[in-house]
Amino acid sequence: MELENFLVTLMAATVRVATPLLLAAIGETYAERAGVLNLGIEGTMFFGAFVGFFVADMTGSLWIGLGGALLSGALAGLLMALLTVRLGVNQHVSGLGITLLLTGLSLFAFRLQYGGRATPPSIEPFPQVSPFAGVPILGTLLEQYLLTYLTFLLLVPLAWWLLYRTSFGLKVRAVGENPEAADAAGVNVFRIRTIALAAGGALMAAGGAFLSLAQLGAFTHGIVSGRGWVAIALVIFGNWDPLKVTLGSLIFGGTFALQLRLQAMGLQLPIPYETFLALPYLVTIVALVLAGRNASYPAALLKPYRRE
Amino acid sequence: MSSLGLKLGLRIEKTGAPLWVRPLIPALALLGTFILTSGLIVWGKANPLETYYYFLIAPLSSRVSTLEVLVKATPLILAGVAVTFAFAAGYYNIGAEGQLYAGAIVAAWLGVALRGLPGMVVIPLMLAGGFLAGMLWALTPALLKVKLAVDEVVTTLLLNSVMLFIVSALLNGPWRDPISNWPQSPEIAAAAHLPKLIARSRLHVGFLIALLVAFLLWFVLRRTALGLRMRAVGLGREAARFAGVPVERTVLTAALISGGLAGLVGVIEVAGIQFHLIGDLSPGYGYTGIIIATLGGLNAAGVTAAALLFGLIDTGAQTVSRALGVPVYLGEVTQATLLLVTLGMLLLQQYRIRRARS
After folding, report:
1. What average pLDDT values come out for chain A (308 residues) when binned by 10 residues?
2. CB A31 within 8 A of CB A163
3. CB-based contact A292:B149 (threshold 8 Å)
4. What does the pLDDT average to over B331-337?
5. Domain spans in chain B, listed from the N-terminal domain onward
6. Between B40, B327, B332, which is nearest A100 by CB?
7. Which residue of chain B comes nearest to A40, CA vs CA?
8. Tens-digit pLDDT profile for residues B260-285
9. Do the Cβ atoms of A274 and B340 come within 8 Å?
């Protein structure tokens, strides 16, 4: 019974922990599928977490806060598009620059708005909903945030369908694989990449906003703490496919949740708990090695496109 | 973005941007950055002009704060040079942050383990050990790159996070300070402290080491066969291979030197400033190094100048925060904006040249 309880709460936590990772990773999947590695992801998540919190606090509405976060993420994506798609600037440097910019900007604004307060500001976060409240196991397992439901049940199928079953998705994949051919076929490479980056940025910011608006109800300096880099790993681990990325997010979320549980239980493990945290990164590197030369990177990733 | 690109551009351009505009680009980028960030300053309820005075001039008006600029620039010069070594050879080492901590771990360990030995022995050993550790942490992604063609951007980036967990495991486990119970390693021996360059300041020998390493970068890139090969590979891997350059060996060498130098950043921060290993030893020097290397145009003088400017901005941001109450994060925002504006301007210029040709 105790074990059952442990497993059920662990699984429920896994899905919760996976949600922000998945949101950001789906955003990164679109950016990379269109040929742009967006290392601005860490900063975009942080920015989304801040803007979401700030707007929600100002307007008193969590949903408007989420909307603000989505918008701010789209803007961050557009900035990345301006640099890497329009101007053809080196993608890693632009991405890291955007991460530095958005991190600094969020901290600057946070200090300015909330600096003098004795207690850190907080808001009433999104509640968890439980369609099967009172039912054993299912009641606990499915007690999740609405945003989690939306992410897993709506966003993931939509992202998959859009990428593989629509002409827009075909264009995204085409400009990421062979922009010259796509251009010759009449696809506007710049526009498709820009759209993918803007939409991807919005999802990254939504991942950050999930942390501040649902999980914490607050904004802290360590709120994102490397989750953007986890999402980068996830996209590779999931082979740039939204469904496999989802599976990966559950595995990554699971190791993280397990580590948290074990720490909370005060168990003395023979290995440091950080091992669990480092595992997803190592597994991703091993996956890259195993795939080796066959790793299915979008062929035009990191390559700026110019019309001659 | 290479000098060849610029040379080609200049050769091609006839009616485009005139030559004298080029040295103006950094100045114009600075101006553009200040215009862009002035909105934030006004939001912070300060006067932009007054703010820029405290930001860029006030730190240089006293001896103490001028030295502080050099202290802050020291790890940035080294990190910028470390990144440049790799980038110049077309190897995108995003992992300097992790390599830095690898060096810091070894420095913190040797600084305690070699207690009783004189500084003349301990300090060179720490520097060598830190260099080796950084190299070792850079080895796996470099080998994966040259042997299996596994992209280095992602592997080096992910290993940064792994290294942070190793540091965290050390500091929360065996190295937790037994006296204070804080997550910091025991203090290194006094003999292991880097000697001060100037008494009653924080400026230490690491600054000279950084300048020396920057000079070595210039020497290697411009005056040695290795440097020539690195630049050739950086400009175009296939062309270099065709010209008979041993591409794999060159990339591997550049990647390992880069990792080793990043390891040195960790050593000088432990032995020169903190005297412990702590979790936030580096506020992201490894990443800032990438920005500095890019702003510095991947050459020694440019990198040193960019690092000094960033040191000034870091010091100035603290001055502004104290004097006018504008949040200190203005520094980060200014640095990032400067990078993005400069990148945009450099390429706008190239773009025009390209257009002029057709």
Report:
1. 84 95 98 97 98 97 98 98 92 95 97 85 93 85 93 97 97 95 95 98 98 96 93 92 96 89 79 87 87 75 80
2. no
3. yes
4. 95
5. 3-7+32-357
6. B332
7. B336
8. 999 999 999 999 999 999 999 999 99
9. no
- Cα–Cα distance, A219 to B119 (Å, whole number): 45
What sign results for the dihedral spanned by CA atoms A30, A35, A38, A44? negative
Q: How far apart are CA A217 and CA A206, in angstroms?
A: 14
- Look up residue A199 and give its amino acid: A
* Contacting residues of A for B88, CB less than 8 Å apart: none
Query: For position B18, what pLDDT does the model report?
Result: 58
Pick the CATH number of B3-7+32-357 from 3.30.450, 1.10.3470, 1.20.140, 3.40.50: 1.10.3470
Collect all residues with Cβ–Cβ distance below 8 Å to B275 and sequence separation of at least 6: B111, B187, B188, B193
pLDDT for A308 equals 63
Contacts of residue B344, defined as CB under 8 A and 6 or more positions apart, other chains included, come to A82, A83, A87, A89
Distances (CA, A) of B14 to B8, B18, B23, B347: 12, 8, 18, 17
Rg value, chain A, Cα: 20
Count of CB contacts below 8 A, A vs B? 144
DSSP B275-291: SS-BTTS-SSHHHHHHH
Q: What is the pLDDT at residue A293? A: 64
Between B353 and A28, name the one with better pLDDT: A28
For A107, the closest chain B residue by CA position comes to: B329
Strands (E), B100-230: none
Put simply, the chain B residues between 110 and 149 with a CB less than 8 A from any chain A CB are 144, 148-149
Let me know the angle formed at the C-alpha of B108 by B104 and B114, rounded to the nearest 5 degrees: 135
Question: Rounded to a whole number, what is the distance in Å from the CA of A160 to chain B's nearest CA?
Answer: 24
Does residue B22 surpass a pLDDT of 80?
Answer: no
The answer to whether residue B8 scores a pLDDT higher than 50 is no
Binary contact (A90, B294; C-beta < 8 A): yes
The whole-angstrom separation of Cα B132 and Cα A140 is 51
Residues 6+ apart with CB under 8 A from B87: B93, B234, B290, B293, B294, B298
For B172-216, the pLDDT digits (tens) are 988 988 778 888 999 999 999 999 998 888 999 999 999 999 999
Other residues' Cβ atoms within 10 Å of the Cβ of residue A187:
18
* Residues of B whose CB is below 8 A from A308: 358
Could you tell me what percent of chain B has a pLDDT over 70?
Answer: 91
Whether residue B6 is predicted with pLDDT greater than 60 in this model: the reply is no
Spatial contact of B164 and A272, defined as CB atoms under 8 Å apart: no
